[in-house]
Each structure stands twice: as structure tokens, then as C-alpha cells.
Amino acid sequence: MRNTAKITTAVLAAGALTFGLTACGSDQDAASDASGPLIVAASPVPHAEILTFVKDNLAEEAGLDLEVKEFTDYVTPNTATEDGSVGANFFQTQPYLDDFNKKNGTHIVSVVDVHLEPLGLYSEKVKKADDLKSGATVAIPNDTVNEGRALQLLAANGLITLKDGVGTSATPADITENPKKLTFKELEAAQTPRVLNDVDAAVVNGNYAIEADLKPAEDALVLEEAQDNPNSNLLAVKEGQEDDPRVKKLAQLLTSPEVKKFIEDTYAGSVLASF
To answer: pLDDT of the chain along its 275 residues, tens only?
Structure first.
């Protein structure tokens, strides 16, 4: 998921929620009817692609009637889940979900982590992170979640040290040790791969890396780990629907060896299984 877009669209979520409740309310009973298909709202790539793989290859044998409904925005999947017009969604991270619930009074909860679209550190000047020279300039995303993730990535690889507990809210002001005296150029996330010629290195979101023809598994100097990463993309439902047998089946299928292999074969490191 693109956190930059999510943060922007979340500002509009309150109005969209009202619209969603009006437009979709007639479908409330359909989503909670365990005898019917499980309708899942998803972003097209990679979420809907992963769900389509499950539908075409695993769902029938597991006794799951699965319907995938694509959305290109980051508000409607949650409002549709809240009002019951879909039974689940698959597009977001936990930090975004927490922020959305807080701002909109919704009651969406996580079921299972599925994958990570990892941030990576890239450079056209050096081949290893340790080779960055004193005073090197590093471009990082300037939105709250992605900037914090970028700094956490650098800290996890020994380039800087951050204050305890800052998490994804970290900013350069939270750096307590900077042995290489790195300087940071804060840019819109989509711009970070475009300045690789002008800086010593840049932290780039997985989706923007792909668009820039970068291959995270091969080209990144360092890459986010997927296991236990709070920014994994997750399957979510309205609170109270976690025990729906259809949801439980889908959660099992999304974290199956078959899906892990599909992710590995299809996305070649630009998407990482979180299980």
C-alpha cells in the first residue's frame, strides 16, 4: 500500500464515510451472511492479484466462495467494510488502519498480516551502505509514516541511532547518533527514486521502486524485513466478524505455502510474505 496516498486520502475519510453508509447500506446483510460469498475489497496490485490467485487455485477446495472487488482509493474499502457492503478488505497497514479508525469512528480490526511492500536504501554511488562517506546526503520520504519507516530502516542497519520508542513517527530530530554525519533530504515519497543521480542514496518505497525499474531484492543496499514488521499489509474485517468461518478460511489460505510461493515467484522481492 502507498502510505503517502493513504495519509492524504484519510483527511477526506469522514465525508467519504457518510457517503459510503448511504450508498452501500442496502448490502449490509449480504456481507454478514455466512452462507453467501465472502466479498473482499482490495487494491488492484498486489492485493487483488493475490486474492485472485487464492480464488482460482485454493478457494474451491477449501470450501470458500470468494469474490474480489477492486478499489483504487484508500477510503472506500474501509467504509464499505464498516457498513457491511463487503465482508473484509485487503489493502492497508496497521498504522493506517489505526489512524482511520481514530479519525472516522469506524471499527475495523486486523485479522492477519499477509505481505510487506518493503522500503529499501538505493544508491548509484556506492554498492554497500557502509561505503557511504561522511556527510553523505540521503533522500527520505517526508510523510509521517514513511519518513519514520525510512529512519527505522537506517537505524536497523547501524547507520544512525534513534530515540527509544519513536517508531514510525520518527523524524531527523529524533536521531541521537549519526556517526557518518549523514544529511537528509526530505521529499515526497514518489520523488525519492528520481533524485538518485543527485544524492548519495535514497530510501524508496517498494511500489515506487518498481515504477522506477528498481528490483528491491537485487538493487537495494538494505531492505526492510517482513517478519513482525508493523507495516505489513493485512486482511481486515469489521469488529465482531473475526470468527466468520469464511474469514477464517481466507486468513488460512492467505498465509499458506502456496500463497507465499506465489508472492515470491510473482514479485521477485518487491513484495515479501509476512508469514
So the answer is: 654 343 333 334 444 444 444 344 444 555 667 779 999 999 888 899 999 999 999 999 999 999 999 998 889 999 999 999 999 999 998 988 998 999 899 999 999 999 998 899 999 999 999 999 999 999 999 987 789 999 999 999 999 999 999 988 899 999 999 999 999 999 998 899 999 999 999 999 887 887 788 988 899 999 998 777 888 999 999 999 999 999 999 999 999 999 999 999 998 888 899 99
> Residue 235: enclosing H or E segment and its boundaries?
strand 233-238
Residue 17 identity: L
**Cβ neighbours for 33, distance < 8 A, ≥ 6 positions apart:** none
Residue 78 backbone dihedrals phi, psi, to 5 degrees = -75, -40
The cell for 172 is 531527523
Distances (CA, A) of 120 to 140, 182, 183: 10, 17, 17
**CA angle, 244 as apex, 273 and 65 as ends, to 5°?**
75
CA dihedral 241, 243, 247, 251 (to 10 degrees): 120
Would you state the cell numbers that stand for residue 118, as one nine-digit string? 518493503
Strands 137-141 and 183-187: parallel
Q: Which residues of 226-262 are buried (b: 16+ CB within 10 A; e: fewer)?
A: beebebbbbbbbbeebbebebbebbbebbbeeebbeb
| The C-alpha cell that represents 106 in the structure block | 469506524
Query: Which is nearest to 119 in space by CA: 87, 143, 154, 72?
Result: 154
Spatial distance between the Cα atoms of 99 and 190, rounded to a whole number of angstroms = 22
Q: Is 176 exposed, middle or buried (0-12, 13-18, 19+ CB in 10 A)?
A: exposed
Q: Does residue 134 sit in helix, strand or coil?
A: coil
